[in-house]
Design goal:
The protein is of the alpha/beta class. The protein folds into two domains: 156 residues, 3-Layer(aba) Sandwich (Rossmann fold); 123 residues, Rossmann fold (3-Layer(aba) Sandwich). 41% of the residues lie in helices and 18% in strands. It is built from 13 helices and twelve strands. 55% of the residues are buried.
């Protein structure tokens, strides 16, 4: 795996590219443009950048108005503020009228680190995927993030893209990777069990699979970057072919990827399933790596969970 790059960095680069390609692209930020990486767009296209100040509800409301006028607005702030403070505006002014607003929220999950529980959004996927018309995307690396931003710019309708603060290793090959909304990616084949991961946990899942291979366990690894619409066909195929599933996410196990996968297989092809994520708890202040270890979001925890789950296979 190569140099670690934060998905928010890729987001900033993608916005600059989009700015030159499409004059209808506009960007809004809630006074965090250096952190969300929208500052580059602001520098290159100042007439299409709007800093609304610390007013997240206005951020989304203005974006909705711009979308209604035919623009393609990207609204950015931290995930906690975007999905927490502005939830009602997203629901009623974006989701309900099905407007073409792209909410790209950075600093999601435990890896916000020292900012602590108040800033560590562990509920945002759940909040966004429950809104009708909303597409929900969680990129696993910088390449995927950049392609995802271009993809949501081309699609019509609301989208939520979850981005991180910390650098993450590359899991996709630049030479042949092609992002497609709603389509999972099989990164490693396996027959004994499937690990379905999203976001930063995809790289951990791949490393876990290597450890499991040494233990004689063949683990398939699937990257589900689109939580909604989720790739039901790929998930059910994995359930049928491997007979057990472990999910991994930097999010509460309630309402996120694990819940979405559980819904698919319980209705389509029930098999033993175990979720790796934060266990219905808030985070705390600390270094990202220490927090991931404390809350069980590591390759070692995935390995232990796989070995436990595989015993439940018929």
């Amino acid at each position: 795996m190569s140099k670690k790059i934060a998905t928010r960095e890729a987001y900033g680069e993608a916005l600059i590219e989009l700015g030159s390609q499409n004059k209808d692209v506009v960007v809004l930020d809630a006074d965090l443009s250096k952190s969300t990486k929208t500052a580059g767009f602001a520098k290159n296209y100042p007439e299409r950048f709007f800093n609304v100040g610390i007013a997240e509800q206005n951020l989304v409301g203005m974006a909705a108005g711009l979308a209604a006028a035919g623009k393609i607005p990207f609204a950015s702030t931290f995930a906690m503020f975007a999905t927490g403070r502005a939830f009602e505006i997203i629901r009623n002014s974006v989701g309900y009228p099905n407007l073409n607003v792209k909410i790209c929220a950075t600093h999601a999950g435990l890896t916000v680190g020292e900012d602590g529980a108040s800033h560590q959004a562990l509920e945002d996927i759940a909040c966004m995927r429950v809104i009708p018309n909303m597409t929900v995307i969680v990129p696993a690396d910088a390449l995927e993030a950049k392609q995802a931003i271009h993809a949501v710019a081309e699609m019509t309708g609301p989208a939520y893209v979850r981005l991180g603060r910390s650098g993450v290793p590359s899991v996709n090959e630049e030479s042949n990777y092609q992002f497609e909304i709603g389509k999972g990616v099989t990164l490693k084949e396996g027959n004994d069990i499937t690990i379905i991961a999203t976001g930063i946990m995809v790289s951990e899942a791949l490393e876990a699979a290597d450890i499991l291979n040494e233990k004689g366990v063949s683990a398939r690894v699937i990257n589900i970057h689109t939580i909604k619409p989720i790739d039901q066909e790929m998930i059910i195929k994995a359930a049928k072919e491997t007979g057990a599933i472990v999910t991994a996410e930097e999010h509460n196990i309630i309402g996120g990827l694990g819940s979405a996968v559980s819904e698919v297989i319980s209705e389509g092809y029930p098999v033993p399933l175990k979720r790796v994520g934060t266990m219905d708890t808030f985070g705390e202040s600390g270094k990202p790596a220490d927090l991931l270890k404390k809350y069980g979001l590591t390759k070692e925890n995935i390995v232990d969970t796989v070995l436990e789950t595989i015993k439940r296979k018929k």
